[in-house]
Amino acid sequence: MERMYVLEPGSTLRKSGRNLRLMKNEALVGEIPLENLEQLVLVGFASLSGAVLDALVRYRVETVLLTPRGKFRARLLVDEHKHVQRRQAQYLRLHDPGTALAVAGSLVRGKVRNSSRLLALRGSHFECRELLQAAAQLKGIADLVSLQTDLDAVRGLEGHAANLYFKAFPLLVRAPGFSFQGRSKRPPLDPVNALLSFVYTLLTQEVLTAVKIAGLDPYLGALHAVEYGRPSLACDLVEEWRNFLGDRLVLGLINRRVIAPDDFVVREVACTDAVDEEDLKEKRPVEMKPRVARAFIQAYEKWMGTRIRCPRTGEHTDYRGLIRRQVRHFSRFLQGEDEAYEPFTWSRVQ
Known about the structure:
The chain is an alpha/beta fold. It has helices at about 50-60, 85-95, 95-125, 130-145, 150-170, 190-215, 230-235, 240-255, 275-280, 290-305, 320-335, and strands at about 1-5, 10-15, 20-25, 25-35, 35-45, 45-50, 60-65, 70-75, 265, 285-290, 305-310, 315-320.
């Protein structure tokens, strides 16, 4: 899948033949070929001409809009998937309380076990008793999930596990100059949180794309309640990837000192609401410098191209293909072709 990112703040996209021209202050920054382009990701407040929108529709290019902080804003799609039967199966299965509970429980168990796996591996490598203890606690929580008969209880255990995990997370950050005082999201308050939020948004978009390809409704899930504008199914199915793909990438870039503290601009701000790009520049508590943002995207794309053997099928694929295989597995479960949905389990990777 050919995808391109536009990271230049205040830039404008214009159509030129079979290309999109990226302009800033009337100067040409670069060109994006429309041929074979499947997804365009705009980070920040880029401007699009009417001709560009027409070209994106004609070439059937999925367009994703993110805020400068990496938060999802909107998604431009050409049309919905035509497999109505799959969405009907999704509505029927997930409307059943027992099925919704089973799916949510499976997702939380998978996420917590993967969290435990990461802490255990790093605890052994760093010879850190605190990490090993936290890993054991998370493993116990994962075992408790199977005993729950109420969806709110499952969600409560997921939240408790997340608190334990991020309480131990500072022990995973080994590079000097970086600190982590807890998970902060809207907005992220430090460089580590900014990187985590950005990579989680990118992974959610990966899952959302896979959900759309599979013909499912991204707004109806099991673990995350229905909320206007929230793609609850994508939020559900991204949980199993946060540690294995998101956290490992961020920690690797920090601990190998590919990214340094001075690659960020950190501000003391009292109010984070903004009316436009210029206003937002002075109200972001933390932001990556443009050069680092581009390097991070490049590292992310390389990471997603990592080859791996699929635990369920034994096929060789990459991380992006692994996500799509899992979503297809979920679709088969909804249609009764697979008995249960088994989330990605890190310990089964070969």
